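Table S2 (continued). Query chain:
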Amino acid sequence: MSVAAGAAPTRRSLISQEMYELVFGTVYTGLMTNLLLVVGCLPAVLLVVATDLAVTWPVLALTAPLVAPALTAAFAVFAAYRDGSTTVVRTFVQAWRLHVRRSLAIGALATGVVVVTGVDVAFFWGRTAGAVAIPVLVTLMAGALVTAVLALAAVPELPGARLRDLLRAALFLGVRRWYLSVGSLVVLGLLAGVVGTRPAVGLGFVAAPLLYVVWANARFALGPVVH
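Corresponding output:
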């Protein structure tokens, strides 16, 4: 008779400890980042959720730059997560405090360009000159958004760089790697659509995963300057 005949068989866990920690860390990072984004963008979030933007868009334009520091902080969280860290709250708060001034400047510049071009598009809509003017204006609007996103992603990576150098590099790399820029704009459009129609789903669950895709595209596009 075998010595181990009476021993109970060893059961193997279907999920390893490492896999459990990975899944838990990913879910926690995503949900907590969503919550912090809502807090950081609260004025704009309230306007989007609780008002008619056709009426309140000028107020939204005033609060839109406040979104930029929250995006910078979220991008810093994504970078830390890539390196294995799940200290979401501390990373977010520290990045927000360190980069708030430059992020606000980037957000204000991008908002200004978007508002001006958006008003011009509305003016030319239905006019003969609009066939020429509107594509140019929409391109400028898209370029401003892409430049802002790349610059915000670069801010935590290059804390000592001058703002104009960040914007110049972001504009150049956004145009050079236009296919990534187009992908990021599509994802941002999808996020805006979900938030506009189902705010709880967009802000509670979808924001972080989609913004992670945007950050990954931006990080790859910024490769020549951040590596």
